[in-house]
Amino acid sequence: MIELKTEGELAVLREAGRFVARVLQALRRSAAVGTSLLELDEQAADLISDAGAKSSFLHYHPRFAPSPYPAVLCTSVNDAVVHGIPTDYRLRDGDLLSVDFGASIDGWHGDAAISFIVGTADPADEKLIETTERGLAAGIAQLEPGNKLGDVSHAVGVVGRGAGYGLLADHGGHGVGRAMHEEPHVPNEGPAGQGIGLRPGMVLAIEPMFVAGGRDDYRYGEDGWTLFTVDGTRAAHVEHTVAVTEEGPRILTAL
Ligand code: MF3
Ligand code: CO
User: Where do the annotations place a divalent metal cation 1 binding (predicted)?
Assistant: First the structure.
């Protein structure tokens, strides 16, 4: 069942989303050559406790995972696509880092992710990130009452395929609300005009994950969580939590 949120609930979701956006902005500033992924995770954990918020990720244990998630951030470097567990790895010049962060306030969740280059950027990585952001924007633009879920998937997929990137099979966005993961699943590719109709009060996380080498398959790392590209090429991941409203899409995880 897809729960429609009231304006009052959307206001709390916006508070959670704004907090998530602020933390991601702070982490982007901190992530320099030599910064460790665990330091970023500690910084985010401190910001959560300062705000009286709650991590959406820590101890999260979905069916697909072998163990409860051990951190408040996902930090996915280079050929790690998503769900990278922060380690003592220190960022190097030219690394492509994706940071995914979720938190709840008064039980309502926000979920968002950014990708960026640490230090000197390779133009191919810049293009990969910009295209992934363009896929996200294209998906968000479809979040209008009366459109179908397939319109969102189609818009994201066309941008990724158009650039020759892979789309990470079986992974995509999701509903957000009192739980971080709610129905419906939002594929990052699919036929337009199909699937459920979008209605005001629906809240969806849109999250394109594009793979530079063009392949859709992936492998799990030894931690059982991290998804890696199979060909070793880099991947980017960006995400916003967005409400469908009468006035169109409202990005809840904007600053
Ligand atoms: N944005 C990610 C997702 O929806 C958040 C994963 S949280 C984790 O898949 F705890 F499962 F890693
Ligand atoms: Co998500």
Answer: 100, 111, 239
- Among residues 201, 186, 24, the alpha carbon closest in space to that of 103 is found at 24
Cβ–Cβ contacts within 10 Å for residue 228, how many?
18
Note whether residue 32 is domain-resident.
yes
Q: How far is the CA of 110 from the centre of ligand 2 (A)?
A: 9
41 C-beta closer than 6 A to ligand 1: no
Asked if residues 101 and 20 have their Cβ atoms less than 8 Å apart, the reply is yes
Cα(185)–Cα(201) distance, integer angstroms: 16
Ligand 1: does its nearest atom lie under 6 Å from the Cβ of 74?
A: yes
Contact 238, 160 (CB under 8 A): no
Residue ranges making up the domain that contains 46? 7-251
Ligand 1 pocket mutation, candidates 111, 168, 223, 237, criterion most atoms within 8 A of CB: 111
Is residue 244 a part of any domain in this protein?
yes
pLDDT mean values, one per 10 residues, the chain (255 residues): 96 98 98 98 98 98 93 98 98 99 98 98 98 98 98 98 96 98 98 98 98 98 97 98 98 98
CATH of the domain at 194: 3.90.230.10
